[in-house]
Write a structure and sequence with these properties.
Structural class: alpha+beta
Number of domains: 2
Helix content: 25-40%
Largest sheet: 9 strands, mixed
Oligomer: single chain
Order of helices and strands: HHHEHEEEEEEEEEEH
Shape: globular
Organism: Exiguobacterium aestuarii
CATH class of the largest domain: Mainly Beta
Keywords: Membrane, Transmembrane, Transmembrane helix
Protein name: DUF4179 domain-containing protein
CATH architecture of the largest domain: Beta Barrel
CATH topology of the largest domain: OB fold (Dihydrolipoamide Acetyltransferase, E2P)
Radius of gyration: 24 Å
Number of helices: 5
Low-confidence stretches: 1-34, 46-51
Length: about 250
């Protein structure tokens, strides 16, 4: 039950019933039993009421009609979170369509959000990436990029483990997020969310736009990049990126 509904129910309690609850009963045991019930009910109600209050709410512009966007804990991400549909693209198209920036950096922070589209809830994650090298795009070394991504939940929650699910705070990688402008709008259940309201960049999907240096080695969607099939370190990917974008200048 959400806190608005709880407040509505609390508002419907008649003062007469409140006064009755204050009358001293002749049977102490029943009074104690009733009092304990009230305490438990109030405690349960308080927990329900505060579950969203303590979650930071991200302010939205007038271009967004979604009910709300809240920062939530990883444990609150629900199963069945929608994933981006993978559009068929060649290796060259991955670099050219939407003109992604290409940077090397470290994941400094991961926050999780719940988006309410008029009762339909969607879960996403916001990555803060500290940029250490820039291969392509209007980005500066040392800049922090806030990037929207598919929800990064616990491994046991995921229906299938994609590349983005392996991202962890402190992890280094090469990232290819696309810059958002006012034209990037998420429409669902009759409501809209201007993506720039929550992040300046985003991954078009959770598979093909990041190369991660994980404890188990280099991880990326190899089938999407025929030119990189045999590479096994982030340094090799970096040298290839430098060569590619120098050639295109």
């Amino acid at each position: 039950m959400n806190h608005e509904k709880l407040l509505q129910l609390l508002g419907e309690v008649d003062d007469h019933h409140i006064e009755e609850s204050m009358v001293i009963e002749r049977r102490p045991y029943q009074r104690l039993k009733w009092g304990a019930g009230v305490v438990l009910a109030v405690a349960a109600g308080f927990m329900l009421f505060t579950s969203n209050i303590w979650n930071e709410r991200i302010p939205l512009s007038t271009d967004s009609t979604a009910n709300s966007v809240h920062i939530i804990d990883e444990s609150e991400i629900r199963q069945g979170t929608s994933q981006e549909n993978l559009m068929d693209m060649t290796e060259d198209e991955l670099f050219s369509r939407w003109n992604p920036v290409v940077v090397k950096g470290t994941v400094e922070n991961i926050r999780h959000i719940e988006i309410d589209f008029n009762g339909e809830l969607e879960y996403q994650s916001l990555l803060t990436i500290q940029v250490s090298d820039v291969y392509h795009g209007d980005v500066q070394t040392g800049q922090e990029l806030v990037v929207r991504a598919d929800a990064i939940g616990r491994a046991e929650q995921a229906e299938h483990i994609d590349v983005i699910s392996h991202v962890r705070q402190g992890m280094e990688g090469i990232f290819m997020p696309i810059p958002y402008d006012d034209e990037f709008i998420w429409e669902q259940n009759g409501e809209t969310l201007r993506l720039k309201d929550i992040a300046d960049y985003g991954f078009p999907d959770g598979e093909r736009y990041l190369f991660l240096d994980t404890p188990s080695g280099l991880l990326f969607e190899r089938e999407a990049y025929p030119s990189l099939q045999d590479m096994n370190s982030l340094d090799e990917i970096e040298r290839w990126m430098v060569s590619r974008f120098k050639a295109s200048e």
